[in-house]
Amino acid sequence: MKQTVQGVIARAKAKPVELTSIVIPDPGPNDVIVKVQACGVCHTDMAYRDGGISDNYPFLLGHEAAGIVECIGDDVTHVKVGDYVVLNWRAVCGECRACKKGKPKYCFATHNASKKMTLEDGTELEAALGIGAFIEKTLVHEGQCTKIDDKADPAAAGLLGCGVMAGLGAAVNTGEITRGESIAVIGVGGVGMAAIAGARLAGATTIIAIDVSDVKLQRAKDEFGATHIINSANLSDGELVEKVHALTDGFGVDVAIDAVGRPETYKQAFYIRDLAGRVVLVGVPTPEMTLELPFLDVFGRGGALKSSWYGDCLPERDFPLYVDLFNQGHLPLDKFVDARTTVDKVEEAFEQMEKGEVLRSVVEFQ
């Protein structure tokens, strides 16, 4: 039976979001209805609102979510009613060329729900990242649900659904940081902080946070595990390289992560690494950006230049692990939650995020 619930949509480009009635159809054979308990407010949702993803309006926003499985389709075997889950946008298909090569983290045909949620007039909604979770209940494919320990706070655990996993994975999965290595993270918003926390978890011994905000830098050191901080606001690229090299016996870092996603920060990451170091881009560039590097400098350095998409994660492997580490006190997921709000305050949460006032605001549902 169809259900009508309240959810947040972006109806037109760069216009304020709206809380409105949304119709959820009966689940298809492999679909699941999840009662959302909490959903993080991510930059990607704001990009959907402002036309930075596509122009297929209206969008149902929200995707960093945790909740309870309420109803399942006839053929669902992956979860059952009552399961506590984090939603993900990498429900691997198992059949595409990436999956068949044994690299499901690059799956080209991830699963989404078989039906669209709609407005009351029948207008179909495009769900953000195939999820759409600024809503009381949402419809997803069973593979988008990852069961976790039900003792974890939904506001914290749900952040693994996107930004925190992106940062953690950039350090651990893409950067392959290991015990005793050094890492520098440029940009310590939510994703950058997660990269720092991941590096600490993996046993990195030199963890350098780089940003233009003294407040964020101090948090990186006090709360997330940075061993050194550098405010780059008034530094030339050469001065930044000198400071990083001074902290790494003159060599540069083993892993340099660009969590900003701009040509200038990528160049900084390129030059602050060791000659055989790994550069990881996890910040998302915009379409008009271009990158220029001296070709000889690219040739003259070993290591690797990598991009990290969703932290190269596999939700079924990674989400339960990191929730367990959170429950054990080894991973400070709760420290990413700077504000808790309600679904009618999403536009205000976007404003807070734009001002850099929070790592994450989280919408909570009763």
From TrEMBL:
SUPFAM superfamilies: GroES-like, NAD(P)-binding Rossmann-fold domains
SMART domains (alphabetical): PKS_ER
Domain of life: Bacteria
GO molecular function: mycothiol-dependent formaldehyde dehydrogenase activity; S-(hydroxymethyl)glutathione dehydrogenase [NAD(P)+] activity; zinc ion binding
Top enzyme class: oxidoreductase
Cofactor list: Zn(2+)
Pfam families noted in UniProt: ADH_N, ADH_zinc_N
Enzyme nomenclature, EC number: 1.1.1.306
InterPro entries on file: ADH-like_C, ADH-like_N, ADH_Zn_CS, ER, GroES-like_sf, MycoS_dep_FDH, NAD(P)-bd_dom_sf
Any single biological process term in GO: formaldehyde catabolic process
Record-linked NCBIfam families: mycoS_dep_FDH
Protein family according to the UniProt entry: Belongs to the zinc-containing alcohol dehydrogenase family.
Protein name: S-(Hydroxymethyl)mycothiol dehydrogenase
Organism this protein belongs to: Corynebacterium anserum
